[in-house]
Structure formats: structure tokens, C-alpha cells
Amino acid sequence: MNSNKQFKFVDLFAGIGGMRLGFSRPFSQCVFSSEWDKYAQKTYQINFREKPFGDINQIDPQHIPDHDLLIGGFPCQPFSTIGKREGFLHETQGSLFYKIAQILQTKKPFSFLLENVPGLVTHDKGKTFDIILKTLDSLNYDVRYSILDAALFKLPQVRERIYLVGFCREYLNERVDFMFPVGQQNDVYINQFVERNMEGYSISQHLQKSYLFKKNDGRPQIVDQNSKVKVKTFVSTYYKIQRLTGTFVRDGETGLRLLSENECKAIMGFPKDFRFPVSRTQMYRQIGNSVAVPVIHQIADRIYDVMQQ
Length: 309
Fold this sequence. Notes:
28% of the residues lie in helices and 15% in strands. It is α/β, with parallel strands linked by helices. It has two domains: 195 residues, Rossmann fold (3-Layer(aba) Sandwich); 99 residues, DNA Methylase, subunit A, domain 2 (DNA Methylase, Chain A, domain 2), CATH 3.90.120. The chain has a six-stranded mixed sheet with strand order 2-1-3-4-6-5, sandwiched between helices. A two-stranded parallel ribbon has the order 7-8.
């Protein structure tokens, strides 16, 4: 690995390409992407000019192009406890992580970054995470992980996620010098991104009275141009207008509305020119399932630093 090399990466469970945005550099090239959701594929295609491959289970790892980096935010699934134990890779069979492990075993990229919710650590009483770590170790990867909050990376959103980074020991002469970025306290708040007089995102007066404000308990979170706060973690079910998890804006025809497309982009760190050729419901789902781009970008910087040594 050296600074003159063009690094190739694959984008698995790609969603709308948030991780790809974080890893894109003049010296990098995405050589393969995979995403099964047809609506996410549309958004990915219009922004990156390529349609991701569909179900990752339908492709032989041998047919995936050679690459230096594997990146992906994989779904959290329980592992099967049925059948004879044949090593840690066998224990993950039937899960989508198993496909990642297969690709790592077959293609042996120099490094990987995997992203998931913090609950992965305690999933199935910690068994899932333990098997993941042991599987990656058995595949000869030096692995480390960290839970990072997007709020510490100049985003106006509290969003904790766990990130796992690994380096293949076959390419290392010594233990790799890699440290996760930690971020820092900052004064980037939602008020800097709230738009005025937006139309079409309004929440009806009836829904406000009968549901959102049925209790005087400080919920849901309401923001405006004066709100020096970080919003709650944006979830894929935001479109359902849930009072416990939602953040809404004091604006619009009825005095209260959903976050606009530009506001959603801002809380996740997507560029303003990123496009969503899908319904608003799908846009909210896709944003909620995506990643905090600046966090990925800083982790990518650290990984590339190691690869260029």
C-alpha cells in the first residue's frame, strides 16, 4: 500500500450511498455496490450514476471485483444455533454478516469498516457481537471498534453508532497504528439549518391536539430558528409522526411541520445537491437508515492514512 495507489472499495448494504460519500477521494474508486431495496437503488443510481447489484446473497464472492476496502452497514440478525459447530464462520450462517465474512475470506481486502446500532454489543445477551469479533479474528483481521456520536462531528443530531475497523494481518509487518477519531463538543445546532415558511410538510391541527400534545410532558421535541439544540436520533419511521421519537418544526401552514428534505440532509451531513427521486415517505426511510457522513469521512481518513504508510 502506498500513496500512489488507487484504492478500490466495495459498498455493501449500500442504502443510498452515505458510506460511499464518506470514502470517496480522488485516489479511491468504488468498484462494486449492493443494495436490495428498489427505492434505495433509485436514489443511489441518480446520485452515483450506477445501479447497485441487488440481493448480496445472489452473488458468488468470487465474482465480486478485487478490492482494498470493504465498507457496509449490515443489518443486525440473530445467529443460528442449529447444527454442528464448524468454527465461527459456520455459526454466522444464515445471517447477512455471514456474507460479509465470506467475502472477507475470499477476497482478503486490506481493510474494512462495518457500521451498526450500539445495541449490537448487547444483542442476544452479547453472543452476537462476541461471535462477530471471533469470526473476524479467525479470518485473520486485526479488529477494533468504537461507539461514536454524530453530535461530536459538527452535526446537529445525537446519533450513536458502533463502528468496526479491521486490517488483514497478512499485509501487516507489525500491529497497525490506528485510532478512531473521537470528535469534540461543538456549537453546531439545528437552528442553523431550520428553513422558514415551508409548505407541504404540515402536521394537521387534529393530529397535534389528539396525539402529539395529548400530554404536557415536553414531548415531542419542537425546534425553530432559535433552538440551539441537537435533535434526537433520526429514525427510519419518522414519517409515522411519533411523539416519543420525533422532532418537528414550529413553522408551516398549521404551525407545526415535519423536517424538510434540506433539514434532513443537514442533520446527516449529506450535501445539499444530493437528490431523492422517491416519495417523501421513502426519503425519510432512506435518511433514517443511512449514516452520518462526516463521521464516516473522518474514519475513512484514518483508514487511508494506514493504507498509505
